[in-house]
Write a structure and sequence with these properties.
Largest interface: A-B, 94 and 114 residues
CATH superfamily of the domain at 339-451 and 463-500 and 542-576 in chain B: Cytochrome c oxidase-like, subunit I domain
Shape of chain B: globular
Strand order of the largest sheet of chain B: 1-2
Number of helices of chain B: 15
Order of helices and strands of chain B: EEHHHHHHHHHHHHHHH
CATH class of the domain at 339-451 and 463-500 and 542-576 in chain B: Mainly Alpha
Distance between the termini of chain A: 67 Å
Number of strands of chain A: 12
Structural class of chain A: alpha+beta
Order of helices and strands of chain A: HEHEEEEEEEEEEE
CATH architecture of chain A: Sandwich
CATH topology of the domain at 339-451 and 463-500 and 542-576 in chain B: Cytochrome C Oxidase, Chain A
Oligomer: heterodimer
Radius of gyration of chain A: 24 Å
Largest sheet of chain A: 7 strands, mixed
Number of domains of chain A: 1
Largest sheet of chain B: 2 strands, antiparallel
Strand content of chain A: 35-45%
CATH superfamily of chain A: Cupredoxins -  blue copper proteins
Strand order of the largest sheet of chain A: 2-3-6-12-11-8-9
CATH topology of chain A: Immunoglobulin-like
Number of strands of chain B: 2
CATH class of chain A: Mainly Beta
Chain lengths: 178, 576
């Protein structure tokens, strides 16, 4: 009875059921596999989390994003008035989150590798690239650098998936891959 | 001191101390009040996220979601857990509770704190969700309320510990504390760590909201806050696993398969979850992969192992008990012949199965460092925790409530037929909700989002039709679950008010500590709690074969689901 003191005073010397022991061994092996998979994927997997990030300040990050947009804007999205930027293949590209937009719109080339810099100018935001489904937490004061290689062409949306106030659901960005 | 303060429940044989009993009732009743409030707002949230209904406007939706999360995850659960602590210490050990007066101070602090938080919410300027991530500000009374609530809960934890000391000194029991009390002790130790973490982050955040501190680092906030947010869910696990064991003992007279294994598994919870906040910052900048991989797993996932052990030993001890009663045919006669119409059992068993199969598996999968990339902040996450908290914890609490209404409150349950199917309605609804939120999340649908059709956005995006359909079905599941939850609250409150009194002549309804009829309390001090009876036949021959088969099915589901997600991960853009 689990609601009474153990029937044996020296309960820690009782034998363990056969199937209990077998299950503990099986479960422990699976737990070790679960752990080993993570370092394995760091070596052999192609999708890993970035370990590159810097402390930054909103003005500094905004300056870098502005400089990139100034140099490489190819057109302006007519409805949102957000510039569409086509940076050189393989370069450092910037996207900033603020209440409530992702800025600017990026135009990338398929199968080229970019260093994508992400940060927030105000509150916390969630970078959720759809429909490929990549999700990153974006914090103010921290600059995340992700090395990404778009391997599909098309139009991708950046949904904000960290709640950021009453306009949260209107915060949508774009990445075009050609 | 010599006053008669104990009564014995004629049905269960349990001894209740007057002051512990009043404290239990007050905490449980307040818990149910928050379940009712949080559940109602959960219904509004579910119906708003159903794309075809979308009933609330954006502002009300974010308000409702903030209250839903806080009222359920913090207030309902912790109020009820305090009742469980008094039960597991004073009642199970036949001891007077230590310092009941201070217990009331703790209770009052919890009431005042939770009320302040609700006031902050309803004033409209604190829709910051349960997580209140800085630098999004809430009103100062929001943080103050949480701090007061936490202090109250901390007082309850220390009274639990002090009661164990009293019981030990006054020799109210023989041998070691029962397994259920041991599980509650685990929950208490985790709770103290958790509440301390909460204080470490919420006190500075409160000072920040008042303007005394200029900046709270958002990553530091997330790291420390989740030592509160995640570990508090581990309090729930320890508490509801203890309740599973308690119900197995109450309904079946089940004895733990081995005390050593079950107690060690509880101990693993304490030892291996302390930096579990790492699970919540897997997709964050500023923390290295090495740190994340190590602190989510400690290289061995021993907290997961602990849950897998309980997942075997709880149904395993039921199986052994049932087989001894003669339900010994085949693999599953013991399960078929279980009392499925008794809500104490059915709610507990649904809690166990869905917690393990859905909550457990999805929790580990999304807590894997790289797989988190395709899951972080999608609606997969609420899909996971509705299986763990709404089914695992809440249904375990519902199960024990069905037991406590007659035993503690001395009232007969009203609507016996509704009691029979309430667990299936709530559990079934939550199962649908969980599964379809998990599905929609896998397709990228964000959590905490008012409009996944983006009708007010300057840019456009359309989620897959399947994702929208899944959100619709999930809403339906949420509706069914809300009906099940409402039915539970009606039964619980209705039984307290209108249920037939079980002790004739006694004025028994006293949820706020008014003295009960003195005639109930005719025992000065109950006899010493003896050791559990030694099994006559010995159970060496009886093996829990059916449970082992279920466990293997569970493992197969776990392995398959893990590698499906790994495969999915390999299909997204290469990145590093």
């Amino acid at each position: 009875m689990s609601i009474l003191p153990p029937s044996q005073k020296i309960w820690w010397k009782e034998p363990i059921h056969g199937i209990e022991m077998m299950w503990i061994i099986i479960a422990l092996i699976w737990c070790l596999v679960l752990f080993a998979w993570m370092p394995y994927w760091h070596v052999y997997g192609k999708q890993n989390l970035s370990n590159e990030s810097y402390k930054t300040a909103p003005e500094v990050f905004e300056g870098k994003a502005n400089a990139m947009a100034k140099a490489h804007t190819v057109r302006t999205d007519p409805k949102s008035n957000i510039p569409v930027v086509h940076p050189p293949a393989g370069s450092d590209v910037y996207m900033l989150g603020r209440l409530w937009q992702w800025w600017p719109i990026l135009e990338l080339e398929k199968d080229k590798t970019y260093r994508l810099h992400l940060s927030s100018l105000d509150w916390q935001h969630g970078f959720s690239l759809q429909p490929t489904n990549i999700n990153l937490q974006i914090l103010p004061g921290y600059e995340t650098v992700v090395t990404i290689t778009p391997d599909q062409s098309g139009e991708f949306a950046v949904v904000c998936n960290e709640f950021c106030g009453v306009g949260h659901h209107t915060m949508l960005g774009k990445i075009y891959v050609k | 001191m010599a006053a008669n303060m104990f009564r014995q429940c004629p049905d269960s044989g349990l001894f209740f101390h007057k002051s512990a009993e009043s404290l239990m009732k007050a905490h449980a009743v307040f818990g149910v009040v928050y379940l009712l409030l949080g559940g109602f707002l959960g219904l509004l949230v579910a119906l708003t996220r159903m794309p075809s209904l979308h009933i609330l406007n954006a502002e009300d939706f974010y308000l409702a979601l903030s209250i839903h999360g806080t009222a359920i995850l913090i207030f309902w659960i912790i109020f009820f857990e305090m009742a469980v602590l008094y039960f597991a210490s004073s009642t199970l050990l036949r001891s007077r509770p230590a310092t009941p007066g201070i217990g009331w101070v703790g209770f009052l602090l919890m009431v005042i704190g939770s009320t302040l938080v609700m006031v902050a919410f309803f004033r409209g300027n604190s829709s910051v969700m349960f997580t209140s991530y800085v630098p999004m500000p809430a009103e100062p009374i929001f943080y103050l309320g949480l701090i007061l609530f936490a202090v109250g809960a901390l007082i309850g934890c220390f009274i639990f510990l002090a009661t164990l000391v009293v019981a030990k000194q006054e020799k109210t029991y023989d041998g070691s504390i029962p397994l259920v009390t041991f599980g509650a002790l685990t929950a208490t130790i985790i709770a103290i760590f958790t509440i301390a973490s909460g204080a470490v982050i919420l006190i500075p955040t409160w000072l920040w909201s008042l303007g005394f501190i200029s900046h709270i680092d958002p990553l530091m906030y997330r790291t420390v806050w989740w030592a509160l947010g995640h570990s508090s869910q581990q309090i729930n696990v320890a508490a509801h696993v203890s309740i599973w064991y308690a119900i197995a003992a109450i309904i079946f007279g089940a004895k733990p398969m081995s005390e050593k294994v079950s107690r060690t598994a509880f101990l693993l919870y304490i030892l291996f979850l302390q930096l579990a906040s790492a699970h919540h910052i897997l997709a964050d900048p500023g923390v290295s992969s090495t740190w994340k991989v190590f602190n989510t797993s400690y290289a061995m996932y021993l907290a997961v192992l602990a849950s897998m052990v309980h997942g075997l030993t709880v149904p395993g001890c039921i199986e052994v008990a049932q087989r001894k009663k003669g339900f010994n045919n085949g693999l599953f006669e013991w399960l078929k012949k279980a009392p499925w119409a008794n809500p104490v059992f059915s709610a507990m068993f649904i809690s166990l199965i869905i917690f393990g199969f859905i909550g457990g598996i999805t929790g580990v999968v999304m807590g894997t460092e790289q797989i988190n990339l395709i899951i972080h902040n999608t609606i997969f996450v609420p899909g996971h925790f509705h299986a763990t908290v709404a089914v695992g914890t809440t249904m375990a609490f519902m199960a024990i409530t069905y037991f406590l209404i007659p035993v503690l409150f001395r009232r007969q349950l009203i609507w016996p037929n509704a009691c029979k199917w309430q667990p299936y309605l709530f559990g079934g609804g939550m199962l649908i909700l969980s599964l379809f939120l998990l599905g929609a999340g896998t397709l990228g649908v964000p959590r905490r989002h008012w409009d996944i059709n983006f009708s007010d956005a300057a840019l456009q995006f359309q989620f897959a039709g399947t994702a929208i359909t899944m959100m619709g079905i999930a809403g339906l599941g949420g509706f069914l679950a809300a009906m099940g939850g409402a039915l539970f609250c009606l039964i619980a409150v209705g039984s307290l008010v209108f249920g037939k009194r079980l002790d004739p002549g006694a004025s028994l309804f006293s949820s706020f500590g008014f003295p009960m009829a003195a005639s109930c309390y005719n025992i000065e001090r109950p006899g010493k709690l003896g050791l559990a009876p030694v099994e006559q036949t010995g159970d060496g021959g009886i093996q829990a074969k059916g449970t082992f088969v279920l466990a293997l099915v569970f493992l197969a589901a776990f392995v398959v689901y893990f590698f499906i997600n790994a495969k999915y991960l390999s299909s997204i853009w290469p990145m590093g």
